[in-house]
């Protein structure tokens, strides 16, 4: 049995509420009437890219042009980062171990190298050969032998990726391959916010396979309401809580998103670079809230690998940059202090506070 939830159904509830059943580009008919939004134009489009379903919605003048530009950008970045497209920067790099790549690819590899350091290797973009060994790249799932994993772990030192920001030349050691799957969607949603701003859009929300990023607030001045998926939901339709946000990304990593089962055991797609096996440390999902979509995506994956204690210690060190929601296999839910006033749930949760001094 396998599961490949192409679109993570962390539904952007705010998006659904404000757009109703609107698809395509049309005048915006809000469900709750208010002066400001009654006159606002909106444009919403579904796009399939990066192996997932994306929804892009903008409000105001230029709404349609901005969505058009967003679609072009999504397809452009997909063509650069995709491991499956032989012409992409990443596929060329993996095949030849040396390639001239675009500025965006350089930027993302460079950011990934920094985060590899700061997360002590939990975020490791050199995970590609390991993903291949488990069959996640082909769909031919298997549990690799222990010695096979040990050999692969020896080729994952991200510090060995050489990067020349001026020429755009990237070089990998012979056995290494890279995969930006943990970070590319967050980078893309961040780029979309820049594009919207360049079109003078002040209100927008995107969901890239459940990874949400917002610009400004809704046209009625209220915050966006984003649902956090319940990792134990059978059909992905239940949620663990609701976040109210503005100008932020909300990105979740979970074991339930993509996995296969063999001999009654479940193997998911977030691999622990310390063991070569799917990360197994008591966490069912990690949600990161940050103004920086790239960071949110990278850390949702990295903190999932770290487990609760290390994840919270990392948050203590970097609490200026992001907030976090951890849901454990036991169902226990923990949120960081900064979300206290913006998170609501019918379930119990614990709030962790920043250490003093
Ligand atoms: P996400 O859904 O953002 O947590 O990203 C998961 C994807 O990142 C996987 O499908 C792999 O492509 C890749 N990946 C898996 N484990 C890691 C890891 N430890 N570090 C970086 N990327 C990973
Ligand atoms: Mg991620």
What does this structure look like?
The chain contains 10 helices and 19 strands. It is of the alpha+beta class and about 350 residues long. The chain is globular. The model is unreliable at about 1-40 (pLDDT under 50). Helix 9 runs antiparallel to helix 10. It has helices at about 15-20, 35-40, 65-80, 90-95, 105-120, 130-135, 145-155, 185-200, 295-305, 310-315, and strands spanning about 1-5, 25, 40-50, 50-60, 100, 160-165, 170, 205-210, 210-215, 225-230, 240-245, 250-255, 260, 265-270, 285-290, 325-330, 335, 345, 350. The strands form 4 sheets. A 10-stranded mixed beta sheet has the order 2-3-4-8-9-12-15-16-17-19. A 3-stranded antiparallel beta sheet has the order 1-13-14, with no helix packed on it. It folds into 2 domains: about 1-75 and about 190-350, T-fold, CATH 3.10.520; about 90-170, T-fold. The structure holds adenosine monophosphate and magnesium ion. Magnesium ion binds near residues 182, 300 and 301. Magnesium ion binds near residues 183, 253 and 301.
């Amino acid at each position: 049995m396998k599961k490949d939830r192409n679109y993570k159904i962390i539904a952007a509830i705010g998006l659904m509420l404000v757009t109703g059943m609107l698809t395509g580009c049309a005048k915006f008919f809000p469900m709750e009437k208010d002066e400001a939004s009654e006159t606002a134009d909106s444009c919403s489009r579904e796009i399939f890219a990066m192996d997932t379903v994306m929804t892009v919605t903008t409000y105001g003048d230029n709404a349609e042009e901005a969505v058009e530009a967003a679609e072009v950008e999504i397809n452009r970045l997909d063509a650069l980062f995709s491991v499956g497209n032989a012409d992409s920067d990443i596929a060329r790099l993996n095949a030849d171990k040396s390639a001239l790549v675009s500025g965006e690819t350089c930027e993302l590899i460079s950011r990934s190298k920094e985060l590899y350091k700061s997360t002590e290797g939990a975020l490791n973009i050199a995970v590609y050969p390991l993903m291949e060994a488990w069959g996640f790249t082909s769909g031919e799932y298997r549990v690799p032998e222990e010695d096979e994993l040990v050999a692969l772990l020896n080729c994952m030192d991200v510090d060995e990726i050489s990067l020349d920001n001026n020429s755009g030349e990237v070089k990998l050691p012979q056995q290494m391959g890279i995969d930006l799957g943990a970070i590319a969607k967050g980078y893309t949603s961040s780029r979309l916010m820049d594009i919207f701003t360049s079109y003078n859009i002040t209100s927008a929300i995107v969901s890239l396979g459940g990874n949400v990023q917002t610009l400004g607030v809704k046209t009625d001045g209220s915050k966006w309401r984003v649902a956090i998926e319940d990792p134990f939901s059978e059909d992905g339709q239940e949620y663990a809580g609701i976040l109210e946000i503005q100008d932020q990304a909300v990105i979740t990593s979970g074991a339930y998103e993509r996995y296969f089962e063999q001999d009654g055991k479940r193997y998911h797609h977030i691999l622990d670079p310390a063991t070569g096996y799917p990360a197994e440390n008591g966490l069912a999902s990690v949600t990161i809230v940050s103004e920086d979509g790239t960071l949110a995506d990278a850390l949702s994956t990295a903190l999932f690998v770290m487990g609760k204690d290390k994840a919270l210690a990392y948050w203590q060190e970097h609490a200026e940059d992001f907030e976090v929601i951890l849901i454990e296999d036991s169902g226990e839910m923990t949120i960081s202090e900064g979300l206290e006033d913006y998170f609501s749930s019918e379930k119990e949760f614990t709030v962790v506070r920043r250490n003093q001094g």
